[in-house]
Amino acid sequence: MGIDAGLDAVPTLSKGAESDELPKSPSPRSDLFEVQQIPGRGRGLIALRDIAKGTRIISETPLLIVKSMPQPALEKTLAAKLKVMSKEQQRQFLSLHNNHPGQYAFGGIVKTNALPCGSGSSTGGIYPTICLINHSCLPNSHNNWNDDHKTETIHAIKPIQAGEEITIDYSHGDPSHIRQQHLRQSFGFDCQCTVCSLPQRELKASDTRRLQTQRLDDKIGDPTRMLSQPGASLADCRSLLRLLEEEYGEAPASSAARLYYDAFQISVAHSDRPRASMFAERAYRARIVCEGEDSPLTQRMKRFMDNPASHNNFGVYSTKWKGSDKYSPSSLNTTEFEAWLWRRAN
Questions:
Q1: DSSP helix/strand/coil, 176
Q2: What is the superkingdom listed in this entry's lineage (predicted)?
Q3: What is 200-341's CATH topology?
């Protein structure tokens, strides 16, 4: 199975993503996994040994990178790129799953497998190994584009046992009926992961939680509410964290990183340095897990952790939460610290 980049629907262009440079070597070998045929799922990656949370499982250079464009033009572009590839690279590309067979054979492979080169990018990369990773609605790994190194990385977001399949999420965290429709149309399979196979009552509860997370995420992203009701916006961040922990066992590192960054932005907009620094630290640690220390976004959060006031929006809404820049909550116990951090009454 592959990963749908959704290239036709993405509006922006990632910096440097149009490079035509080809990789110098075939797909990487690893002592962490091997490619195996998995009954009913095609090829996939199986862990050869226990993999700790936060481990970088693979970092891979794309076979090719393409922009979103009309199908006829895309087919011509891909044909030209394939001509200059080595025989091994051509074989790797042509062996990938194509859920859109027909007139545009090359484009069907791209549509089925391309991963966007960064959030919101209209360019996608095709990878000989990463594109073999199968889907789960409760994945054990996370994929991310590292723009500094021009590679796609896969990190374990929970402990993975030897013999376990390495999985990522092809969906967008929607309720099950929306996920199933997307996966069927884009990839040609009905998901039977542990979430989708839950008894009806439990699946309905899962769907309710996923709808609630989407609604809370929309509320948190409302800048007017962040201005007029920052305390409520911060409370929504905490509620979202609890929902994610209930649905996934623990908040997925990528979701936690975004959530803590939202809390950071609420704090800096109202001049709260101590809390902003703490939220930036949590976002930084979450990004290490799902992207690695060398990720540009990880390094960005580290800078904000050290100096929250360097953010462009520091104090842009108010100074109502300024307080003392020298205040340290280090003397608080865990319960007291969490109450302080989220501005809750003890």
A1: helix
A2: Eukaryota
A3: 1.25.40
